[in-house]
Amino acid sequence: MRMPAILLLLGVLILRAGPAAAADPQLVPDVSQSDIEIRYSFAGETILLFGAILYPDRKLPDEDVDIVIVLKGPSVPITIREKRQIGGIWMNAEAVGMRSAPGYYAIGSSRPISDIVDERTAAIYELGLHNLQLSPTGFTSPDQLQRFETGLIDLNRRTRIYSEDASAVSIREGVLYRASMTVPARVPVGGITAQTFLISHGKVLAVASRDITVRKTGFERFIAMAAQKFGFFYGLVAILLSLAFGYAASAYFGRR
Amino acid sequence: MDLYLPIANLSVNALVIIGLGGLVGFLSGMFGVGGGFLTTPMLIFYGIPPTVAAASAASQVTGASVSGMMAHMRRDGVDFRMGGVLVAGGIAGSLLGAWLFRLLTALGQIDTVIGLGYVLLLGTIGLLMARESFTAVRAVRGGKPVRVKRRRHHPLVAALPMRWRFYRSGLYISPIAPLLLGALTGVMTMLLGVGGGFILIPAMLYLLGMGTQVVVGTSLFQIVFVTMASTMTHSLTTHAVDLVLAVLLLLGSVVGAQFGARFAVKVKPEYLRLALSLIVLLVAARMAWGLGIRPDEIYSVQAP
């Protein structure tokens, strides 16, 4: 449906790029939706990320290119707590703070990341869950930090807030690429940055990004906003509702 | 039918929550308790964050208790003076509870405290109730009349200074005792999302020595007001009351409560009490199991 449009765009850009373009190829990315709306039936969403690789100077398409797509939600400071058995009870013991943990992170690529780039490049561009810059605070040893980071990644992987998929992206003839990636129901509200990396022979040739907005709409948005901003009225409504329900049921059943 | 909860930030099966509310409502109508002690743990088992569970369960207790309270008011079964003192204590208690809630959340121990609180509270009350009702059932079966203990308040209550007359309850005691009792249930309502009926009723009977004809009505009166106060406190402090979740629970529980109340008439009260005590013990055991075994998730994340 939108593929013809992208081909048209591709054509226009090729014409415009002309001889003045840089020697490196460029990316023209797009997403199937730039708005994710959380409504009453929201149970996650699959979005399609696609685009074209532009080769300047009518260079032939390079067959040895890789595309890596990173979806990243807003980073927030968090505290990770570790449970330990104390006096027979499993309770939170040690804690490590992280200044910037993404609330959502999904990485999709055409091959495993380790086959595409070396570790240093992966770390620079934060490619892969183990290369996230979490900016820890208040840890005592590298061992402890390692443990907590692994714990966090493991936990978020299972709730599908973090994900890695080495076969999410498919590239056609070195020119067109597409990937479908899932945004889980627990995605935090805010902006998601969709970054597309064009990589060839271990070198990042081009980076392009698109923004996706995640927001609650309609009723859900109203409720969340009211709970935060108008606590008193929100509480009043909750109380009146519960009284009304109790009264209505007893009145209805009392008559029969 | 999946429904997104705007405060809990996750989607749940609406029918499961309504069914849960209905089941709890049925039990609460049958036993004359609010049922919060079942709702909160079950919501937690289902995957709702404990804070949201405790905050939203309180409004369900209000709904389930209000019809009972009205029925007792019509029969003149509420001691308003005693109820007023209990409510005053309860509101103070829920403010104290809110402070404790914030402190424990900051320390990362709120979940453990909720779990431990349930185990200790339900375990103790369940055991006491089971023992009492078991003896009663045996006595009824043997055809012997149950010995009625002479009603009197606890010596500690008698030692408190300043005395008020509570005519409906037939008491002349210090208001400090019901005030403290109310405060205790207020703290519990805030932390655990329970109404506190199952601790209030025995305490009114055996500690204060209130007349049996006003105990249930007065306890419901206090529960309605204190759960309302705690819903409000949660709305103002933790912002964790999920209206969608609360409405789903209410929908099931107010209907379930009516059926439960009808069913209760057909069953002997001793058997009812025995059954309730077994349910209470079961919940306590499940909570204890959850604290004792290695949890699925060792790590947990807290955003500020």
UniProtKB/TrEMBL annotation, chain A:
Segments traversing the membrane: 231-253
Keywords for the protein's UniProt record, in alphabetical order: Membrane, Signal, Transmembrane, Transmembrane helix
Domain of life the protein comes from: Bacteria
Originating organism: Flavisphingopyxis soli
Record bears the keyword Membrane: yes
Any Pfam family: Alph_Pro_TM
Signal peptide: 1-22
Name assigned to this protein: TIGR02186 family protein
Automatic annotation (TrEMBL), chain B:
Entry keyword Transmembrane: yes
Compartments where found: Cell membrane; Membrane
Keyword match Transport: no
Any single Pfam family the record assigns to this protein: TauE
InterPro entries xref list: TM_pro_TauE-like, TSUP/Inactive_protease-like
Superkingdom of the source species: Bacteria
GO CC terms of this entry: plasma membrane
Membrane protein topology class: Multi-pass membrane protein
Record's keyword terms, sorted: Cell membrane, Membrane, Transmembrane, Transmembrane helix
Stretches that traverse the bilayer: 12-37, 43-66, 78-101, 113-130, 171-199, 205-228, 240-259, 271-289
Main location: membrane
Recorded family membership: Belongs to the 4-toluene sulfonate uptake permease (TSUP) (TC 2.A.102) family.
PANTHER family: MEMBRANE TRANSPORTER PROTEIN MJ0441-RELATED, MEMBRANE TRANSPORTER PROTEIN YTNM-RELATED
Protein name: Probable membrane transporter protein
Species annotation: Flavisphingopyxis soli
Lineage, opening ranks: Bacteria, Pseudomonadati, Pseudomonadota, Alphaproteobacteria, Sphingomonadales
